[in-house]
Amino acid sequence: MTESPRTALPSLSALPGERLEIVSAWDADTPYQAWRPQILVPPTFRPATAPRTYAVVNQKGGAGKTTSAVELAAAWAADGYRVRVIDADHQEAALSAWLLPQYPDEGPRHSLRSVFFDECSLAEATYPTLFENLYVVPSSIDLQRVEYERPIGAEQALAAALADEAQQAGGPAWDVTVIDGAPSLGLVTVAALTASDEVIVPVKVGGLDMKGMASLHKTIRSVQRKTNPKLRVGSVLLTAWDKSDFARQLAAKVSEDYPEAAVIPIRRSIRASEAPIAEEPVRMYAPKSTAAGDYDQAARVILPGRAAA
Ligand SMILES: Nc1ncnc2c1ncn2[C@@H]1O[C@H](COP(=O)(O)OP(=O)(O)O)[C@@H](O)[C@H]1O
Ligand SMILES: [Mg+2]
Known about the structure:
The protein is about 35% helix and about 15% strand. The chain is of the alpha/beta class. The protein has a single domain, classed as P-loop containing nucleotide triphosphate hydrolases (Rossmann fold). α7 links the parallel β8 and β9. α1 packs across α11. The protein binds adenosine-5'-diphosphate and magnesium ion (MG).
């Protein structure tokens, strides 16, 4: 295999721009003019420790799933964790086009589909990216075969693949696995939820769809009941956040729905939409942008860095 040089992801220790304040309750009485985006970490919130598997899920397209998966993964990789991102969206495979998998010169190119059909292990479908500590399991349109061919045990396939991998490695093979979900609540999404410790729900401010949030809630509950009792919703990210009364109502609504979750605004920034074209995480492409800084803070709340651990 040709070894491509790996770029170290920057740590944003010189905190860019204005940092968000962390509070344990919203103050609904703050007048609009004085109101700032804040991170809500309720007293019931439990921070996580590695190893940890996260599913980034919302069946609405454009919610910020792929951006959140890439930026959180990049923040943890910059902190020194060994991080793998799994692309579970066959419709766009946006993650695979953003974090280009570095395939070997020869031999088969595996993807997540091959894992579902028992054609390879999860380790064999994992490829380095151009960035240090950051690896990817790619996908393409053929992942949709899982939905209509329904291979045996598909709901458990990812959980089983992760368990096999840990067993073969003689311990957890990765500090963090982040699964970038599809815009549907189909079989692959259920498999992702079944394989995860924790759900991260990105919600785009302005694109909220109450019915959609209710069906997501229902799917999570039924996974908790039937296939994965340990699953919890640890955080909700309010993506492309702009100051508006609606943003504030949304924040209040999601903290009602998920009282134990951290609710974290990620401010709107044009840099977030440019970064995939540059094929770099936002923290690399625009380290001073609010989106890079906010995701950095989000990553530290959700899974504190090695230094803090
Ligand atoms: N904080 C942000 N500011 C501005 N644009 C954003 C932000 N987060 C995401 N976007 C843009 O919103 C669109 C949808 O985001 P994406 O992560 O692809 O969502 P999903 O994976 O849920 O479909 C993309 O064009 C992305 O660049
Ligand atoms: Mg996506």
